[in-house]
Amino acid sequence: MKLIAKLFLSISAAALLAVNARPQDQRTETPECLASQSAKMNAPCSTRQQDSAAQNQDSAQEKQKRLPSLLRRWLEMAANTQASQPDWLSPLATTSGRLKQEFRYDVWDQPAAPGSTFQLGGNKGLEFITSPRTQLLLGVPNYTFRSEKGPPGGFGDLPLMLKVRIASAENAEGNYLLTFILAATVPTGAHHYGAGAAVLTPTLALGKGWGRFDTQSTIGITLPTGNTTKLGRQLQWNTAFQYRAAWKLWPELEVNSTFFQTGKAGEKQVFLTPGLGFGRVRIGRGFRFSTAVGMQIAVTRFHTYNHRWMFSERLSF
To answer: What is the number of structural domains in the chain?
Structure first.
């Protein structure tokens, strides 16, 4: 009974407070406020509350408009940047000098006695345009494992890349490009698969097209920041010959060369890489898909691997 009485007294006190508060609220309203209430279907009429609510609403609407606007301007800038250069398909092994908006993931299958060695990622990843002349790559570290008994699988180093456009022209205006590329790997990999030190690779990429045929070439040098005796320095020269065929097919032949300056000084290895690309096929709003497959075949006495299958998947946006 005591609990019921206390509950009853609490409810009564709350009701009295509400009754006493209502006349006070009515006294604070001005005639203008009452007229505004009538016009706005009895909406609250505290000036400060109205101002605060209006400011919050305007701020929220401004943010909602600003984000899509920034995204739209960035996408328009990226589209204009890509439209002012050749529209060639990226080769398998030769780094393209095109500035791109793309996510790429490669898989390498390399014969190894016994079984095969698989590398997932191919030092590719997310490429996005940051300005009309620059593009960044945030790569996915390779994951390497053996199909038979061998060292345990593990991740390699983190790949990064900056592209700076020097000159380019679309197909109808000259069909060429010249790009400076600075690639780097950050030593995040496991003991068996990481370099143990950061490696910088400044590269110059150039390309020229004639109708349906084009050639793309890169020349660069690997510069380890440490452990140079083990890693060495290599001059890398890659050239790809492509043809835009029917049904969105891109047959290609690449020549991939490495000249060892230190470490295995004086040695060189050269691969011929025949391949076939397909794309770009529109699969949704702003997204296009392409793919390529090929094999690296050693043509020199010295080589560190041979008959490597390369599979590449790309999603452009």
So the answer is: 1
Q: Kindly state whether residue 120 falls inside one of the protein's structural domains.
A: yes
Please report whether residue 68 resides in a domain.
Answer: no
Q: Which CATH number does the domain housing residue 173 bear?
A: 2.40.160.40
Q: Is residue 78 part of a domain?
A: no
Q: pTM of the predicted model, to two decimals?
A: 0.77
* pLDDT tens figures, 266-299: 799 999 999 999 999 999 888 999 999 999 999 9
Q: Can you give the residue range of the structural domain that contains 272?
A: 84-316
Q: What is the 3-state secondary structure (H, E, C) of the chain?
A: CHHHHHHHHHHHHHHHHHHHHHHHHHHHCCHHHHHHHHHCCCCCCCHHHHHHHHHHHHHHHHHHHHHHHHHHHHHHHHHHHHHCCCCCCCCCCCCCCCCCCEEEEEEEEEECCCCEEEEEECCCEEEEEEECCEEEEEECCCEEEECCCCCCCEECCEEEEEEEEEEEECHHHCCEEEEEEEEEEECCCCCCCCCCCCEEEEEEEEEEEECCEEEEEEEEECEECCCHHHHCCEEEEEEEEEECCHHHEEEEEEEEEEEECCCCCCCEEEEEEEEEEEEEEEEECCEEEEEEEEEEEECCCCCCCCCEEEEEEEEEC
